[in-house]
Protein: VOC family protein
Organism: Streptomyces alboniger
Amino acid sequence: MTEAQASAGRRDGAGTGRSAPGTPCWVSLMAHGLTATQEFYGALFGWEFRPGPEQLGPYVRALLDGREVAGIGQLPSDRHLPIAWTPYLATDDADATAEAVRHCGGTIGVGPITAGKAGRMAIASDPTGAVFGLWQAARHLGSAVVGEPGAPAWNELVTRETASVVPFYRAVFGYTEEAVVSADFDYLTLQVDGRPVAAMHGVGEALPRDRGPHWMTYFEVADVKEAVDRVTELGGQVVRAPWEGSHGRMATVADPEGAVFTVVRSHARA
């Protein structure tokens, strides 16, 4: 999020209407230990939890001051998938968007399936293997609050080089993009209707070999150092120590099962 505003991830009146197609509208985590994972994030972000929808198996929705902000599900014991936060990108037609993903060289791993009265969803990956979700809202519109402490603030694709994958996202979601003009910095903001909603960061050989291309979710916090200390107290790890970016202070951490995310105190909240 070095050149992207943390606040750009906010929607005025978040949760009061459908998100425009292509906008990250929800984040979800599939973990092995659902109870322990709830305890970790409840202690870190002050989340409470509500079960459902039941069509997703063991699954809970995280609440911040009574408002839904994220989801956590339980992986079947025989599924050995990477534990990772996954952003869901809004669509008006999950089936049509899933077909566009396939047509443009991506893969659909799950769905599309109907999640009760909440909406319709799919899990996809782009041609480089980065995983993301599709969400066609019905009753569940997505995160009801964005950019406040304990809530999602931003989503960013970390990949080898943006030029190789931006055509896929442009074709599937209709993004326009704005590049950071720099000879040694490969960074694009993805825009919907002229508004930045997410970003891509090409990191070249610095791409973690054990993860490959991936989407990174940022959560707003009141104090980055306190959040990092709390992560370690709760059994998580520090992946990258706190640093100062153009629009905020941030640190990358992992929960006890290894799900990586970034905490940020955006300058807009200073």
